[in-house]
Design a protein that fits this description.
The complex is a heterodimer of chains A (about 400) and B (about 120). Chain A is built from 20 helices and no strands. Chain A is mainly α. Chain A is elongated and about 75 Å long. The N and C termini of chain A lie far apart (about 65 Å). By secondary structure, chain B is of the alpha+beta class. Chain B is built from 5 helices and 6 strands, in the order βααββββααβα. In chain B, a hairpin with a 2-residue loop joins strand 3 (about 55-60) and strand 4. Chain B is flat. The chains are: A mainly alpha (about 400), B alpha+beta (about 120). Chains A and B meet through helix 19 and helix 20 of A and helix 2, helix 3 and helix 4 of B.
Chain lengths: ~400, ~120
């Protein structure tokens, strides 16, 4: 076997794993309600594939091959554990599905159920996104740990604990009923958006890893939209992320320096992504059920309007923020509102919004101090502004942001 | 729980200390120090003089070995430490990531070992 042939097999396995991982884990765990066993079985199948495919060449349908191998390994595992009586239904299910299904023509896509399981209220909300990244996208624990700034060992343990909880608490693999759906869907959307946010903040466009996480979040939203085309908030979230993504190239100067939105060269924005975002958002609005993500996307659509009109309609942005605050009173929303209102009605109006936020909540929240410093500076309150700039610089993680603020401070 | 943030720095960072304090790196440290203190998590800490001022001692097979400086092969050297009072390692990682040395050198986090201190103090 030549080296390049082996490389081809490796690449092919990587491709199949990338495209099918979530579908396979979802299908296997929907039948066993055991994500840990499903993932173990699949990684064993991938290992076997490495040997068998290198020897015999690629099978006709690699995904079906992996499913069959993983299924056997789950059945072996259950037999090995000698808990046959307890697992009888699982075994039956696995066998039933096996004969019923025409493996070659595909198997049902259970990823939607898996997404709802990952964002189940019984699971620690902080683990919703990591679980999704791992089970639906196959992102490894070390990378997730880096993105979430958690020790790899800790992240690994938390993931295992959450998956064990899914199994032991008997969380059902199902799409929630209509009356629960809005709340449950919001948790799924939040988790996807959190992944995007991390990819976005993560040294913005400099770091390859960060960019990939943003792309993966967009991919998850596309999967969700495919599975739930009638939900406007899913479209809203996708539109929001596409708007942000469209500006990626404009966020950094030639020397990687930070460029704030208002100073970005709009010719560097991706018109292809903006167009898709606009279409997605207008489809969402047609449903007549506005929500948090549609409003956030609407704010972004006003921002990109500058590419056509040459100016930013801050009054419109403030108005969208006011609606947003009514449904989602987060720290980020209130600070965004303060910044927009300052542009529309003057720095004093923005500062009043900031002053209304309780100080304990913002002791280590960087955006608050950055906006506060900017507004105090505009109001000529130099000493207070310098102090706020120091806090903003001290809390920033990105050296380019620190440098940007340092220049503004002096 | 108390954590030590061990700050590893490159030669450029140590060299920056010789200036009048107006360089960006020192400025970033001033801002970081202020944020840590204002957030109410600062217990103590100090910068250390440059690595070449260090002296390392070891007893090997009963013989004393004294060496000038620290481990000469490492690119980054221990440049200082901070002790912070924080609820968990996650919080310590968040503060370490904001440290100016994290983007040019490295910051290691170690929990303090009060149990051992008690044994030493007797």
């Amino acid at each position: 076997m030549s080296g390049s042939g082996e490389e081809d097999i490796h690449r092919e396995i990587e491709r199949v794993a990338r495209e099918s991982y979530g579908r396979l884990v979802a299908y296997l765990s929907a039948h066993t309600r055991d994500v840990v066993a499903a993932e173990d079985a699949l990684s064993e199948a991938l290992l076997t594939a490495l040997t068998v495919w290198s020897r015999d060449g690629l099978p006709q349908n690699p995904e079906a091959w992996l499913l069959t191998a993983a299924r056997h390994s789950i059945i072996d595992l259950i037999r090995h554990q000698r808990v046959v009586s307890e697992s009888e239904p699982t075994l039956l299910l696995l066998k039933e599905g096996f004969t019923e299904m025409n493996v070659a023509s595909g198997f049902p896509d259970e990823r939607l159920k898996l997404l709802f399981v990952c964002a189940h209220p019984a699971i620690d909300p902080a683990m919703h996104t990591p679980l999704m990244l791992q089970t639906v996208l196959g992102v490894d624990a070390v990378r997730i740990a880096g993105a979430f700034l958690v020790a790899p060992k800790t992240m690994g343990q938390r993931l295992v604990r959450s998956k064990t909880k899914i199994r032991d608490a008997g969380i059902r693999f199902e799409v929630p009923e209509r009356r629960e759906l809005p709340e449950r869907l919001e948790a799924v959307l939040e988790a996807i958006y959190a992944a995007f946010g991390i990819g976005w903040d993560d040294l913005a466009g400099v770091d390859q890893r960060g960019q990939n996480l943003a792309e993966e979040a967009i991919w998850l939203a596309r999967v969700l939209l495919e599975l739930m085309p009638g939900e406007p908030e899913v479209r809203g979230l996708l539109a929001l992320m596409l708007y942000c993504e469209s500006r990626r190239a404009a966020r950094r100067g030639p020397d990687h320096e930070y460029i704030p939105l208002s100073e970005q060269d709009h010719k560097q924005w991706s018109s292809r992504l903006i167009e898709e975002a606009e279409q997605t958002l207008s489809e969402a609005f047609k449903c007549g059920r506005p929500g948090r993500f549609q409003l956030e996307a609407a704010i972004q659509s006003v921002h990109v309007e500058r590419a056509r009109s040459g100016s930013t309609d801050w009054a419109a942005i403030s108005a969208f923020y006011r609606q947003l605050i009514r449904i989602s009173q987060t720290l980020g929303t209130r600070i965004g509102y303060a910044a927009a209102l300052a542009e529309a009605n003057g720095p004093g109006a923005g500062l009043a919004v900031l002053n209304a936020i309780e100080s304990e909540a913002v002791a280590s929240y960087q955006p608050y101090w950055a906006v506060r410093a900017h507004l105090l500076q505009q109001l000529g309150k130099t000493a207070e502004a310098l102090d706020a700039y120091d806090r903003a610089i001290g809390l920033a993680e990105d050296p380019a942001v620190r440098e940007f603020l340092r220049k503004r401070r002096s | 729980m108390q954590f030590a943030l061990l700050v590893y720095e490159r030669p450029e960072a140590f060299a920056a200390r010789k200036g009048d304090g107006s360089d960006p790196y020192t400025g970033a440290w001033r801002a970081y120090y202020k944020s840590v203190v204002e957030a109410g998590v600062y217990i103590g800490g100090d910068p250390l003089e440059a690595p070449e001022t260090g002296t390392t001692v070891r007893i090997k097979e009963g013989k004393r070995q004294v060496q000038d400086g620290p481990n000469p092969d490492a690119k980054e050297q221990l440049g200082g430490f901070m002790i912070l009072e924080l609820p968990s390692l996650d919080h310590a990682l968040a503060w370490a990531a904001r440290c100016p040395a994290a983007s040019s050198g490295a910051v290691e986090i170690r929990p303090l070992s009060p149990g051992f201190k008690e044994k030493v103090k007797g």
